[in-house]
Amino acid sequence: MDKQQQTYREEAYELLAELEITLLELEENPDDDDLIDQVFRAMHTIKGSSAMFGFDAIAAFTHEVETVLDLVRSGHLAVTKDLVNLALKSRDQIKSMLDKPDVDLTENENIIKQLKGLSSDIKTTEKKDEDSIPELVLDMEMDKNKPSEPDIDFDQMTLRTDNISTETMPTITYRIRFTPNPKLLIYGTNPFQLIQDIQELGDTTIVAQTNRVPDLLEIEPDHCYIHWDIILTTDQGIEAIRDIFIFIEDNCDLKIDIVDEDGEIEFGSDYKKLGQILIERKDISSDLLKKTLQKQRRLGEILVESHVADQGQVESALAEQNHIRTVREKRMQNTSTSSIRVDADKLDILVDLVGELVTVQATLSQKAFSSEDTELIGIAEQVERLTADLRDNTMSIRMLPISTTFSTFKRLVRDLSNELGKEVSMSTEGGKTELDKKVIERLNDPMVHIIRNCIDHGIESPDIRVNAGKSRSGTISLVAVHSGANVLIKISDDGAGIDPQKVRTIALEKGIITPETELSETETYNLLFAPGFSTAKTVSDISGRGVGMDVVKSSIETLRGTIEIESEIGVGTTITLKLPLTLAIIDGLLVKVGKEYYVLPLSAVEECVELTQADRNKSKGRNIAWVRDEIIPYIPLRDIFQIQSPPPSIEQVVIVEIDNALIGFVVDSIIGEHQTVIKSLGRVYRGAKEFSGATILADGSVALILDVHRLSFLAETLERKKVER
Amino acid sequence: MNFQMDTSGQSGTIIIDEPLTIENVSKMKTVFLDAYNQINHVKIQFKSLADIDLNGLQLFCSAHQAFAKANKTMDIDLTNASIFNKNAKKLGLIRHKGCHLETSENCLWRKRSSR
Asked: Which one, of A438, A400, A363, lies nearest residue A678 by Cα?
């Protein structure tokens, strides 16, 4: 596949993702013309670019879908649930065609038939409009005579290829005042067409002035009393505008003025307002300014009340002001946020290289400081600073807003709730919170499983909800917030909640716990993560197969994250995922056990305390430490790693938090904080689950990164076996 | 389309069931005038509205003005008439505030969240 085709595919996937979100929004707001336009434009762009890059089957199919969407856009076909369903189905089919070029195309015909069925419902009484309704054709062939190039909407799809040069034309904003002759409409001129032709030239703001419309007693109903102020931003010249009016120029007054030109943004005129400056200087508070401004009346209101200008004129002037402001903002934004598309693999290589550089830099610093050469130390410090900046910048490139993954769940919620006959809506918050691309990618499956559980087990059916005094429709909310070096993702539902007693009963039945086992509420909920646990009485397609939550937990832990459940019967359940911002470099605590070095994730470390022989004697052989009158169980890593040499007289306990409990890891000594560039373990060590990776130290030696969750689980298992023996 | 006065003699309903385009705006004007001359409050309902052009929209504006000037009221129920707002928007009629005759934010072209 050549580079341009690859670019097309990437862009098409992005458009399809946007299309899905827009369609779901449209389902909720069926009268929103802007959303209808967005859907149409996305389909139109996919069609045009598919034809251009040789994806003819996609182009032909999209052409048919677009034809129906055009009926919606023109107001001849209403937005219904059926229409949205079919549009989503079409979107999925286009995606399948992109995924697998040899996909079975019979589904295309089915979808088109169903779409055609919808459009055939259009009432035949609309005789006048029939001529303008585009004909629906089942024939998969595109109109070969129609050039495909003009179909591409470059606003929607910017072709960022190396070989195609797109010269940027300067844009000009015009003010067009169009006052038609009163008899213009009798002559058969269609003002809708005129306006549409102008809109096709660029961004427009159209204000119709009604101040000359006489009242009912005087009006000649077939005359035209309305005139228009149109603000148009375009890269076309004035002649292109005049051409639109060429056939009616003798029957109208047409005045075209330039009000803004590209490259001539007068920053001076847009400089901060007086109030802004005073607030910035802390001379006045923003609240006081707001209160004071409320007393002041707006110029437009004063002008209208004084009969100096009418409301339409003021409205038109404000529209022009707003239009220019938007154009300028867009222009500024384009200048400041120009972006390039980079292959994700290249980014991964860059992160790896930066990781190597961090390691080499640490070696350099160590050598420099041990040499006591001040010049060399100076250079090493400079390299250290630059490396840190480079590392932070590189990592930030890989950060993506979590909204990219949130938006995909909206469709899941919609389809699944329909399937189960439930009414569920989804809300999101904190979509701008950023996480490493890799974390986001690997977060998708666990989150899908949790959301499926929320809908299947959590949210009740509408009747049950109503009987319980709740609204018919349940809600799932996804919230992302920063918490130190982590991001918390909370998935909440307002469903039935989890009954801890029921969980305990099932755990007993399945032999996960014994009747003597005493558990707190949190510990009871954690039983849901035990392998083979399922509260569902029947196995459904949705969930309840008894596999899942344990896999969810291990997936989250693989990301060095944690998962927690909070629930209240009848109120709902919240599952909180705590995830690191990045997987590539972490702040670690470097420790030594025997001759080897290990790293613990610093974010999990609560504190470090000493462990002497006296302390050991005090606990009478049990692995517990007393920290400020609190008992902390600990795991001697020497035992786990079977190190035979004698331990130092004073060992160190690194206390970490795991599943809301504190647990210590006994090491020989603590070296200190360490910027840990995570390297994955080779194939030979893949089985060693207690290590989440390795890192290279400044002297070139390797330190293993400890997976504290797995280690504590291993220690528990070993302890249990010991007791059983 | 037709106009029906209710028993109070103060109000009535205009029922519209055909397109409001240049071909039949004169007929529409007559119906509006009937209502204007006979009652103080008119309600407009649509059985269906297949199309409305500039003349149709303009006539509504004119009738609305006449009612407002005479301290009469005109309520429009846009159920079954989504094309009304759609075409008004296309022609640039939708605005933030009504003209000087507007009372209680009832201008036909005032931007509302439901539009």
From this structure: A438
Residue A32, CA atoms < 13 Å, CB-side half-sphere: 14
Round to whole Å and give the CA distance between A614 and A620. Answer: 10
CA angle (A345 as vertex; A343, A347 as ends), nearest 5: 75
Within an 8 Å CB–CB cutoff, is residue A219 touching chain B?
yes
Residue type, position A362, single letter: A
Q: Which CATH architecture has domain B2-90?
A: 2-Layer Sandwich (3.30)
Query: Are the C-beta atoms of residues A88 and A79 closer than 8 Å to each other?
Result: no
- Measure A332 CA to nearest chain B CA, in Å: 27
Continuous H helices in A248-373: 274-280, 286-295, 299-305, 311-336, 344-371
Domain ranges of chain A: 3-151, 172-264+297-336, 344-396, 400-580, 585-724
> What are the pLDDT digits (tens) for A211-220?
889 989 899 9
> What's the gap between Cα A225 and its chain centre?
48
What residue in B sits closest to A231 (Cα-Cα)? B92
Angstroms from A241 CA to nearest CA on chain B: 17
The CATH H-level superfamily of A172-264+297-336 is: ACT domain (3.30.70.260)
Name the residue of chain A whose CA is nearest to B65's CA. A215
* Whether the predicted model's global pTM rises above the 0.80 cut: no
According to CATH, the topology of domain A585-724 is: SH3 type barrels. (2.30.30)
Interface membership of A188 toward B (CB under 8 Å): no
The nearest CA of chain A is from the CA of B34 a distance in Å of 11
d(CA A695, CA A359) in angstroms, rounded, equals: 9
Chain B contact for A310 (CB, 8 A cutoff): yes
A360 vs A662: CA distance, rounded Å: 35
Q: For residue A230, list chain B residues with Cβ-Cβ distance below 8 A.
A: 92
User: Does residue A278 register a pLDDT over 80?
Assistant: no
B92: nearest CB among A78, A208, A221: A208
Domain boundaries, chain B: 2-90
What integer best gives the mean pLDDT of chain A?
80
